[in-house]
Amino acid sequence: MKNREKIIVALDVPTAAEAREIISELREEVGAFKIGLQLFTAAGASFVREVVEGRREQQQRQPGVKLFLDVKFHDIPNTVAKAAVEVARLGVWMFNLHALGGGEMLRRTVGEVGEVCERENLARPKIIGVTVLTSADEETLGEVGIEAKVETEVLRLTRLAAKCGLDGVVASPRETRSIREDLGIDDFLIVTPGVRPTVAAAAATKTTTAVFAGTNDDQKRVMTSGEAIRAGADYLVIGRPILQAESRIEAVRKILGEMEADKG
């Protein structure tokens, strides 16, 4: 897989119009795009379908793109499974749910999505489990009654996700190497947010990378893009370092350069 295919641009913007502009600009530069709760709430399922299927613009067809729907389902098993089936019918490439929802929720979702996709001749989306959010640390876990260290909890939830038939997990790049070593499954996907490319930061801020090193927004467990790939990540979800850059295309290309230079 080429490095550009490993980049998922987070469409963390409030309107469909802004998202369309970003997709149009970067569709040939990256592998996929992510719609999260903000944009999904603002633009709805119809916009998800538009992104996946493409749309007609100025008498020309704008083809669709690969989409990761990041809505982190977490509810009773029946509710999540039924919602996941509707997501599959939207045609997304990948979506996620909280592994903390438990084994029954995970297994029913995988099973029902698989059955519907086979029956309706749909491409089955990748289903990945959220482990511990990159905004969380041990103090956060303790607040909700989880006394384990972050890495221990991530590995526990990853094992559960794999056991229940999920295709992969969302995890901080800090836990990626441990997941690879613990599972020993080459084709188990690891999708990593919390990526803070140093070169993209310089493009975005016109300051030194040293200034950026302490600026991680609300992320607490981060790495650079090159470090994350070297640790074993399959896909990198990157938002603000690209979206806030003076030139988004240049930011992506510098990230690609960093990934290549730091692959070790």
Provide the CATH top-level class.
Alpha Beta
Q: What count of domains describes the coordinates?
A: 1
Number of helices: 12
- Would you identify the CATH H-level superfamily? Aldolase class I
* Helix/strand structural class: alpha/beta
Measured distance between first and last alpha carbons? 17 Å
E-strand count: 10
Low-confidence stretches: 203-216
Question: What is the H/E string?
Answer: EHEHEEEHEHEHHEHEHHHEHH
Report the mean per-residue pLDDT as an integer. 89
Share of helical residues: 40-55%
Q: Judging from the principal axes of the Cα atoms, what is the shape?
A: globular
Strand content: 15-25%
Rg, nearest Å: 18 Å
CATH architecture label name: Alpha-Beta Barrel
Strand sequence of the main sheet, in spatial order? 1-2-5-6-7-8-9-10
Summarize the structure.
The protein has 264 residues and is an alpha/beta fold.
Give me some keywords for this one.
alpha/beta, TIM Barrel, two-stranded antiparallel ribbon, 12 helices, 10 strands
Summarize the helices and strands and which ones pair or pack:
Blueprint: E1 7-10, H1 16-26, E2 32-35, H2 37-53, E3 54-57, E4 60-63, E5 67-73, H3 77-90, E6 94-98, H4 103-119, E7 126-130, H5 138-143, H6 150-163, E8 168-170, H7 176-183, E9 189-192, H8 198-205, H9 209-212, H10 225-231, E10 235-238, H11 240-243, H12 248-261
Parallel strand pairs: 1-2, 1-10, 2-5, 5-6, 6-7, 7-8, 8-9, 9-10
Antiparallel strand pairs: 3-4
